[in-house]
Amino acid sequence: MDSGKITCPWCGTLNRVSARFCISCGRRLEDLAYDGPRFLFNAREGNNSLWRYILTIILTLGASSILVGIILGVFFGIILVLSHRTFDISILFNPFYLLIVAGLVFSVAYIFLYLSVRFLHNRSFRSLINTGREIDWRRMVKGALAWFLVISVLDIIYFILSPRSFKFSFEPQSFFLLAVIALIVFPIQASFEEVFFRGYLLQALGLLSKKPILVLIVNSLIFAGLHWWNGSNPVTSLSIVISAFIIGLMLGLITLADDGIELAVGIHIINNLYVSLIHNSPDSGIGNLPSLVVTPPSPYLSPIILIVAVLIVIFILFKDRREDILKVLR
To answer: GO molecular function terms here (predicted)?
Structure first.
């Protein structure tokens, strides 16, 4: 390399030593000494005024739910008027209906997030996904397979040790309907949460601190706190929040270590499909699904099993990339 030039770590273009920004991709060169996750730097591409973040969060998490609620209200209102029937409130507690509504809300939230990132922040939406490479679908599959393998093996071990805890059921019609809905809704829901929490919000927090571990912890606390209402009682809710914090730490660590959310997206999607289709708990957020296996919640044991699963998956995915993990933990 020319001694009077420096190479841009993002696009590989040679620049003058005195240059502050890359002449090709426009990214900051003054951060070359930083050896942490480059993924956090993506937020510096656009406009980062506080009001833009506040408005984006309101539109994405608030307006999307309100808009879907209005649309559904109008739709049911028209149906009731035309059919001369009264509204059956029991439909609001039907798990299939709740899943469909969730799919609609997250779909609208995706649209609001995209528009906000593109036109409020003036950033590429792909900057929420990785540091510039093409979206790697193989990474998603790799993450999904690794997590599925680990939780399946742990479930088998759990069944061997405590077979009476497992209640098996299979209702073909209900299960296949659940499978169709879940295969549509959960990829939308889980990928949105990764784009928002491990992409948008994680990078936003990275503007406030250059300590990746601090950014990771704060992000995971926010993610976990929003899961409090998934439980049916305080003990279960606390267990779910602890589990969500552990999952958030894992997904955030993997995102920062890999400089992209693809692995995390694969893990999150397969996790939600697994707990809805294969192994569900009656006290979870949507507990009365016709899953293949149902077990009562174990608020004290579940987080311990989850920690074991997380450590195994991180080892599988990063066994030859120890430095990538350490750069986050420094």
So the answer is: metallopeptidase activity
Supply the mean pLDDT for the chain. 88
Q: Which residues lie below 8 Å from residue 181, measured CB to CB, with a gap of 6+?
A: 96, 99, 100, 103
Percent helix, percent strand, percent coil in the chain, to nearest 5:
70, 5, 25
- pLDDT tens digits along 77-97: 887 777 777 666 667 678 888
d(CA 219, CA 239): 18
In the three-class reduction of DSSP (H, G, I as helix; E, B as strand; rest coil), residue 122 is classed as coil
CB 260 within 8 A of CB 39: yes
**Domain segments of the chain: what residues?**
1-33, 34-329
Instruction: Specify the range with the lowest mean pLDDT, choosing from 182-191, 216-225, 286-295, 306-315.
Output: 286-295
Q: Which residues contact 133 (CB under 8 A, 6 or more apart)?
A: 260
What torsion do the CA atoms of 264, 265, 266, 272 make, to the nearest 10 degrees? Answer: 100
Phi, psi at 83, each rounded to 5°: -95, -5
Dihedral pair phi/psi, residue 261, rounded to 5°: -100, 5
- Do 324 and 258 touch, CB atoms closer than 8 A? yes
Rounded Cα gap, residues 61 and 54, in angstroms: 11
Beta strands in 124-189, from DSSP E residues, in sequence order = 167-168
CA dihedral 242, 244, 245, 251 (to 10 degrees): 150
The DSSP call for residue 92 is G
pTM, two decimals, is 0.86
Which residues, other chains included, contact 307 with Cβ-Cβ below 8 Å and sequence gap of 6+?
Answer: 246
Residues 76/87, Cβ–Cβ less than 8 Å: yes
Separation CA 251–CA 313 (nearest Å): 11
Cβ neighbors of 2 (< 8 A, separation 6 or more) are 14
